[in-house]
Structures are given as structure tokens and as C-alpha cells.
Amino acid sequence: MDQVRIIEIKEGVFEQNNQKAQELRDSLKQEKVFLLNLMSAPGSGKTTTLVQTIKGLQDEMKIGIMEADIDSDVDARTIQQTGARVVQLHTGGMCHLDAEMTRQGIDALGREDLDLIVLENVGNLVCPAEFDTGSTKNAMILSVPEGDDKPLKYPLMFAVADVVLVNKMDVAEHFDFDLERFKDNVRLRNPEAIILPISARTGEGMEPWLDWLRQQIERQQ
Amino acid sequence: MDQVRIIEIKEGVFEQNNQKAQELRDSLKQEKVFLLNLMSAPGSGKTTTLVQTIKGLQDEMKIGIMEADIDSDVDARTIQQTGARVVQLHTGGMCHLDAEMTRQGIDALGREDLDLIVLENVGNLVCPAEFDTGSTKNAMILSVPEGDDKPLKYPLMFAVADVVLVNKMDVAEHFDFDLERFKDNVRLRNPEAIILPISARTGEGMEPWLDWLRQQIERQQ
User: Fold this and answer.
1) Burial class of residue A112 (count of CB atoms within 10 Å of its CB; 0-12, 13-18, 19+)
2) CATH number of domain containing B66
3) Is residue A133 part of a domain?
């Protein structure tokens, strides 16, 4: 297997972040590149969902992935097996990515020939929500074992998400998770959010998610 | 049900944190109060584990709980039903507690008559590990659905943990989780960590955990 590229990224100045994020978003729009910021708690299944997403879309478009982590390159190695272009971003201990860090990652990945770039953000329901990365859209994953009360405890994450994937639905019967109660809790924070139940492991519910992505990417073209 | 007390806490100066943490730890030792800092990702089962822990120990000692969250008081309400004294700490959007915030929480809770105080930290595998809270010992929970690779991706959290509880063992058969591989990964970060498999839901494995706590608390007396 090829060596995974590991990029050490540096934090930008916080005050300028919103401006830099908007600049990045505008330049990606001009270049017709869709940037998805994918967020979740640790272990919610971001990488597995991403592998299924790549498999579902890679015949239709060119995809690049940025894997952000405090340490390790285990996720980048998993993604590499799909054939998608991937870089591993190391955040130097930081729990989030800002717009400047994201831009550095995109520069390292190369954007010219890509239709879709996914930033797999650091596994964390707090900090990543506080920083606009310059993404075209934000997606987040909440997995069933985490519980249906999480929108009450991590309000900002649910407020900034354009789409909420509810992962690990295949094991829902083993947990006290009420999908309707979860939807109600999400709507308290974000009435506009699209909520899609999936199982990245079994492939259940992936088509509505892929369709949502296709539509969003088409608008950017 | 009584109203849950909600304390809005303010962040201390980062540079002074280590010193303040040591001062808090020393003063708790003098007063024979054991402070446990309980950390995990969102949805790992901190509150359920805490309820079981309180039930197992409350006939032997006096227990106070500090619930730290960005928002909501759902966990404090759950804890309140056990009869333990509890305060809810709101971190003002921050993803961690430092020693000064912890001290403010303990002052609000009152420490005079307590043997054990547990700080249920913000659900997050990154930031809480970076700040010494002044705790006597650090415990963390990793739940089976999160995966056995997490010590590779969140090294500091596993490095600072004195004990690692592996929760949700009752559903292990439904996940690709290898306990031995997990132990190996933990040991890469922390050869000294005690690793205890539990199910807070079924009560499986709680006795070794309670025994560990009893021994630690005894040393503080």
C-alpha cells in the first residue's frame, strides 16, 4: 500500500476565521468543487459511512478525502483502499479544524480535478461546530448507541448541521433509542435539518443520503 | 422533583492551571475527599455508570456529583433520582473543565461531609484530557460501539487515564470489537492503566470497578 501523506497543519487566527471561511467557500464555488464537512463524536462511524459514500458515488464523480485526527493514520489507510485520493491532516492536538487549516489541507490534496471533497473532521461534538471550515455544507452523524438525548447536550453541533445521519440503525433493537424522540430533539435546535437513518455497515438507507449529496453537488456545478 | 442547581462557571487562566490543580488536589487530600474525574466521548454511558456506582457505594460513604455539560440538565436530573447530592455545571460552550472551574463546582456542591466527589466531565475525548482538574484520579469510559482503535486516535486521553472502563460489553457480539486488541492499543499509550470491562446497563463487571474505587478512596482517608 502507498504511504499515506500526513500534513501537519497550523491554526489560523480565530478572529479572521469567518472571513477566511467565506473566501474559501466562494473560491470552491467558482471552481465547482463541493466541500462537505463531516462531523460526529468518536466512533460514530464517519469513516465507514465515507467508504460507503465513496463506493456509491465514485463512478459518477471525482472524490478527494481529508482525514483529520489528533494522531494516527488508520482512517486514511482505510479510505485509501477505496481508491479515492486522501490526505491525513494532523491537528497538533487541537480538537477542531478552522478555515485556514482546511485550506492548507485542500492545497495538499489538490482540488483542480475534484467534484467532491469531504473533510472528515476530528471526532468531537463540541469544538468542530464552533469553527466555520469554509465547507459548502455540514453533515453530522449521530450513532444509535450514543442516545437520542444528544441534541439537548450538544446544541451547537445540531444547530450547524445541514443534514444529520442517524447511523448504526441495524443495532437499534439493542439500545433504548427512540428515533421520533431524537427527531424532536434535533428540531428543537434546528428545524431545517434533514434527518436520515442509515446503517453504514449494512448499506441500509444509503440511497437517500447519496441522493441528497448528488443534488447538493449538482447545485454547485 | 427538586429543581436542579445549575452553576455557570468561568474559565481560569491556562498558565496557572497546573498550579491550581495541585493546590486543589492537596486541599482535598487534607480534607479526606476523593475527587474522581470521569471522562469519555458523548454517549459512552458515563451517567449510567455513575448511577450504578452510586448505588453500589452509597451505603458505605457520602457521595457528591458534579455534572458538566455545555447545556441541559438531563444528566443531573438522572443522578438526582439516586439520592446523591448533585450540581449541574454549565461550561459556557467550552469543551473541558480546568482546575478553577472544578473548584467553583466543588464550592457550589459543598465538600465538608463528602467522601467521594465525581466530576462527570464534558463528553469529549480531546479537550478534557488537556486540563488537570485537580482530581485525585482520572477514569475514562470507552464503549464497545466506539471501536477498539480509539487509543490510536485520542492518545492523550488514554495516557492520562488511571483506569479505563470498557462499557456496553453486553452488546459486544453485535460489534467488531476485539477486547485484546483494545488492551494492546491502550498499553501503547499507557502501560499502567487498569482496564475493566463492564456493562453499566446489566451490572456486569461492576464489582471490580467498585473495589478499585474503594481501595483508592481508602488511601485518601
Assistant:
1) exposed
2) 3.40.50.300
3) yes
Q: Which domain holds residue B129?
A: 28-220
Element (H, E) at B16: none
Q: Virtual CA dihedral for B122, B125, B126, B128, nearest 10 degrees? A: 40
Bridge partners of A34, per DSSP, are: A116
| Beta carbons of B41 and A41 less than 8 angstroms apart | yes
Q: Quick: pLDDT tens for B33-71.
A: 999 999 999 999 999 999 999 999 999 999 999 999 988
Q: Model pTM?
A: 0.91
Give tens-digit pLDDT for B96-142: 899 999 999 999 999 989 999 999 999 999 999 999 999 999 999 99
Task: Please report which helix (H) or strand (E) contains residue B7, including its range.
Answer: strand B6-8
Angle ∠(A21,A26,A32) on CA atoms, nearest 5: 125
Structural domain includes residue B5: no
Q: Which three cell numbers stand for residue B136?
A: 485525585
Q: pLDDT digits over B65-94, tens only?
A: 999 998 888 999 999 999 999 999 988 888
- Domain contains B10: no
**Would you say residue A11 lies in a domain?**
no
Say if the Cβ atoms of A150 and B122 lie within 8 Å: no
Task: Name which of A88, A121, A124 to mutate to probe chain B: the one with the most chain B Cβ atoms within 10 A of its Cβ.
Answer: A124
From the list B69, B150, B154, the residue facing A153 with the nearest CB is: B69
Number of domains forming the structure of chain A = 1
Looking at chain A, which residue has its C-alpha nearest residue B43? A146
